């Protein structure tokens, strides 16, 4: 199974379409959205082609392929217009004998980790900064932001296939990678 990860869309039709083009090119099975679907948030600038209503239409056309969690900019009204659940603080996926703990990062994060077993994978968004590392036998991954990258990073997404997680820019270049032992 091949999983496509993105975070922090923040209502940008432009970057969502670019990311979904990569989803199709990668031939991934599912899209994992790590929160902040529709709104830019008070601390962020308006993203390119900001149009939450159009983002709703686009995302709803992929309903059967999306697993999502709630970001700090997401609300109950957002779930009323999206045809898939987004209000969970976290989700878990079992992948090749590993638990993938999925969250946005505003509640569970590196300073407030959930209880995970050795070899599990903690995947979050929120910071808009790509990251891959192994700490205390837990894999910690952030695919960055497709729309509003920070600290001079590229617009990025993640791909998980055959126990290797790659963070790629929207041109398809690999920036970071980690393999699960």
List the helices and strands and how they pair.
Blueprint: E1 3-6, H1 13-26, E2 30-33, H2 52-60, E3 66-68, H3 76-81, E4 90-95, E5 98-103, E6 121-123, E7 131-135, E8 138-142, E9 156-161, E10 164-169, E11 174-179
Parallel strand pairs: 1-2, 2-3, 5-6, 6-8
Antiparallel strand pairs: 1-9, 4-5, 7-8, 9-10, 10-11
What report would you give on this structure?
- With 181 residues, the chain is α/β, with parallel strands linked by helices.
- It has one domain (3-179): Metallo-dependent phosphatases (Purple Acid Phosphatase, chain A, domain 2, 4-Layer Sandwich), CATH 3.60.21.
- The chain has 3 helices and 11 strands; from the N terminus they run E-H-E-H-E-H-E-E-E-E-E-E-E-E.
- It has helices at residues 13-26, 52-60, 76-81; strands at residues 3-6, 30-33, 66-68, 90-95, 98-103, 121-123, 131-135, 138-142, 156-161, 164-169, 174-179.
- Strands 3-2-1-9-10-11 form a 6-stranded mixed sheet, covered by helices on one side. Strands 4-5-6-8-7 form a 5-stranded mixed sheet, with no helix packed on it.
- The chain is globular and about 40 Å long.
- The model has no long low-confidence stretch (mean pLDDT 97).
Keywords:
181 residues, alpha/beta, Purple Acid Phosphatase, chain A, domain 2, 6-stranded mixed β-sheet, 5-stranded mixed β-sheet, 16% helix
